[in-house]
Amino acid sequence: VVRLEESGGGSVLAGSILRLSCSKFGSRGNSLAWFRQAPGKEREGIASIRVDLGGINVADSVKGRFTVSLDPTKTTIGLRMTDLKPEDTAMYYCAAGSFTSYYAPLRPQDYGFWGQGTQVTVSS
Question: What is the pLDDT of residue 115?
Answer without folding.
Answer: 98
